């Protein structure tokens, strides 16, 4: 009887072990999900045929963890440093990059900035020439002579909600400037972004400053975790999460105020920065445009778009503490079992 129980236990254990093995093998060999997506064909103006919905089959990335864009791929470091305050700001594309630069220009030479009647809402073109004493370093955060070190600097970066950041990217680059390799609709854009970023992941490309034009698209579309050497210094930063509403901006300004006080910036300059930032909005900004609102609505309701964006920016939600949208709650990445 004892032998039979022991044999039964061994058999059950073997069956359970085999089931786990089959599950793990299935995860790594799973085929992408095939999804039918309805689109509308574009009919030339000189034809009498009316446009009609057609079914196009597209192979979407699955739910295994390896089909999500991973965090902390070191794609780009774009720093601005002010020697006056030993202050270091990392510029994250499509995340208040102009505001960051204007802020650092102002602190580098407050008198010059005010004499030239510059504001924190200046665009790139308007600000040109107002940053004479600023230190730029796109690939290393130190002066060439080594007088400043990363560990001794107060570091800050503006972080934006992944959803609104992508909408800003799409409206600005794909609609306003037509810089998305011909993509003018969200379905095309999300797939293009996913494929290009996954290509970086699989091939581990390194940034080549001489070929910056080839990387320009990816700099703006990549997850925010790919910036600023966050894979090494994430916990060292004052991360300022900034939104588009006045309430969000006020909360962000409190975080910015803490960072500036840590860097020993004088109160009179902090007060000016707080006041100007709450009312500033660069002409380059897109969040108040009608296009932005229309695209944002599609991002929140289109299953195809959500499917890709979830796999592109999931780890931005996790790394920076954003609440994961409820629509993603049943679509989290699956991890292989561990022994």
UniProtKB/TrEMBL annotation:
Which is one GO molecular function term here?
chondroitin 4-sulfotransferase activity
GO terms (BP aspect): chondroitin sulfate proteoglycan biosynthetic process; positive regulation of response to oxidative stress
Q: Which domain of life is it from?
A: Eukaryota
Under InterPro entries, the record lists: Chst-1-like (IPR007669), Sulfotransferase (IPR005331)
Q: Name one GO cellular component term.
A: membrane
- PANTHER family in the record, alphabetically? CARBOHYDRATE SULFOTRANSFERASE-RELATED, PROTEIN CBG14245-RELATED
The protein depicted here goes by the name Uncharacterized protein
Protein source organism: Caenorhabditis elegans
**Taxonomic lineage:** Eukaryota, Metazoa, Ecdysozoa, Nematoda, Chromadorea
């Amino acid at each position: 009887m004892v032998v039979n129980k022991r044999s039964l236990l061994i058999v059950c254990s073997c069956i359970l072990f085999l089931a786990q093995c089959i599950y793990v093998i299935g995860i790594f060999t799973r085929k992408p999900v095939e999804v039918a997506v309805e689109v509308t064909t574009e009919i030339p103006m000189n034809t009498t045929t009316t446009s009609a919905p057609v079914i196009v089959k597209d192979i979407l990335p699955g739910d295994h963890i390896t089909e999500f864009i991973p965090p902390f791929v070191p794609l780009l470091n774009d720093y601005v440093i002010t020697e006056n305050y030993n202050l270091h700001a990392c510029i994250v594309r499509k995340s208040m990059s102009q505001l960051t630069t204007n802020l650092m220009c102002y602190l580098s030479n407050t008198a010059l900035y005010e004499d030239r009647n510059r504001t924190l809402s200046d665009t790139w073109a308007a600000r040109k020439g107002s940053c004479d004493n600023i230190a730029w370093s796109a690939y290393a955060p130190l002066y060439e002579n080594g007088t400043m070190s990363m560990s001794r600097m107060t570091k800050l970066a503006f972080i934006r909600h992944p959803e609104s950041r992508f909408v800003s990217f799409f409206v600005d680059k794909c609609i306003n400037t037509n810089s998305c390799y011909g993509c003018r609709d969200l379905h095309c854009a999300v797939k293009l972004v996913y494929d290009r970023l996954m290509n970086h992941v699989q091939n581990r490309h390194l940034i080549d400053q001489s070929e910056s034009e080839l990387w320009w698209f990816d700099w703006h579309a990549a997850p925010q975790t790919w910036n600023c050497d966050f894979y090494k210094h994430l916990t060292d930063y004052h991360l300022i999460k900034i939104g588009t509403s006045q309430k969000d901006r006020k909360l962000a300004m409190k975080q910015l105020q803490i960072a500036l006080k840590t860097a020993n910036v004088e109160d009179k300059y902090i007060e000016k920065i707080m006041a100007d930032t709450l009312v500033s909005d660069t002409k380059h900004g897109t969040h108040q445009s009608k296009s932005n609102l229309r695209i944002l609505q599609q991002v929140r309701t289109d299953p195809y778009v959500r499917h890709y964006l979830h796999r592109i920016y999931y780890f931005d939600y996790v790394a920076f503490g954003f609440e994961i949208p409820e629509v993603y709650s049943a679509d989290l990445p699956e991890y292989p079992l561990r022994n």
